[in-house]
Amino acid sequence: MTPPGGESGARRRNSGASGRDGRRRSGDRERVSHRSGGRRAGGERTRGNRDPSAGMSTTPGRHGVVHLEPDIVRELHATARPGKGEILVKVFGEAAAAFMADDLDEAIRLGEQAKHLALRSGAVREFLGQAYYGVGKWSEAGRELAAFRRLSGSTEQNPLLADVYRAMQKPERAIELCDEVDARSVSRPVLFEASIVAAGALADVGRLDDAIARLEALELRPPVVETHHVRAWYALGDLLERRGRFTQAREYFEAVAAADDEMTDAVERAARLRSRG
Question: How does strand 65-67 pair with strand 57-59?
């Protein structure tokens, strides 16, 4: 079939992904915030939406030495305790390198050191929130992501924070946070992620039709298919299957499989639905 994105998924960008919503691969750290390892209450995994290590490069070492972008260095110096700017940059770089190497315990240890040096650093608090999310420490993740939201005024991590509230059995708060995300001020991936998390939270409270409608309102037939489209297809297929709309669910799983047959378990799910006749 022709997937909702069109053209058999051939014109697809950015296929790397991570997650537990059927995904097989743990993914890479193409953007650290797009690879958070936590599990949400519904069994899926979401991703953050900004990358504290974007623009960083590494050189060999235990976890590598991270070279930070100038804007990150400026932010760290501006928020560091007096005389602690250089050591903060060093510690935060080491924390980011540990995160990128999947050593989340070390990333958290170093991130906490960085926080001690710069309590009001949005970059540090965002980073720690994602690291805690990655090991499933919901209370700590929520604390840090809420601090980032407060310090930065940004809603870009609202989907991740909302997912934390889902894990803590507070779906109503999760929906509120996703509703705060303004399509005019965030990227398309962030907007899609907010809708995916909101749909999951709506399903948590038994509003399955509203969850489906939330995803169906997205642009699901793009001229170029990207990761956020495929994530939305998978989430919608899952909800449609739960609603008993098996033919439509199968079509979305087939679309996901056409875009990347190794990214998820969509091949198996589509086959199972085909066997239902």
Answer: antiparallel
Helix (H) or strand (E) holding 119, with range, is none
Helix (H) or strand (E) holding 59: strand 57-59
State the Cα–Cα distance between residues 80 and 86, nearest whole angstrom.
9
Place of tokens 């889902």: 166
Cβ atoms 273, 240 nearer than 8 A: no
| Angstrom distance (rounded) from CA 199 to CA 6 | 24
Q: Which residues pair with 57 in a beta bridge?
A: 67
| CATH code, 1-39+188-277 | 1.25.40.10
Question: Tens digit of pLDDT for each residue in 206-250?
Answer: 999 999 999 999 999 999 999 999 999 999 999 999 999 999 999
Distance CA 254, CA 240 (A): 13
Please tell me the pTM assigned to this model: 0.81
Give 66's strand partners: 58
